[in-house]
Amino acid sequence: SSGINAEYGEEETGEGGETKERKIDLVHQFKLVECTYMNKKGFKEWLTDEDNLKRWKKYLTDALQEKDFKLSDEDAAAKVEGGVMKEWKKELTNFAKFLLPQWKNVMIFHDAKEDIEGAKIFYVGDDSGDHFYYIKDLYRTDKF
Question: Which segments of the chain does DSSP mark as H helices, in order?
Fold first, then answer.
């Protein structure tokens, strides 16, 4: 994924007027399910929900340990507490500021497992094309 920055990746899907068809193809290809329960208010709540923040903190800790297997649980947690989480939340806020003003062009999907806790994929469609964003450390694909 090309990172816009460390926290969210963007998938570009070309230009032109076939926005709807292309979007449906992508949705079909990745077996995405539209996340109809999340409106603008719900999105804001999701971002600030205490349980989510706890879980995301754990994801960030896990992500650090995946990159550096020698990192102990305590050290990884200390890094997250010591700035990683703060930085991450700042990016999340930036992402929200980017998304909210164009909410009418936003659709939210999750993968076929409908993991309510997990990754949301944010689709933004406008004249310049289709963009799918996901929040990197929340996007956990099954490893085989």
Answer: 19-29, 40-48, 50-67, 73-79, 85-99
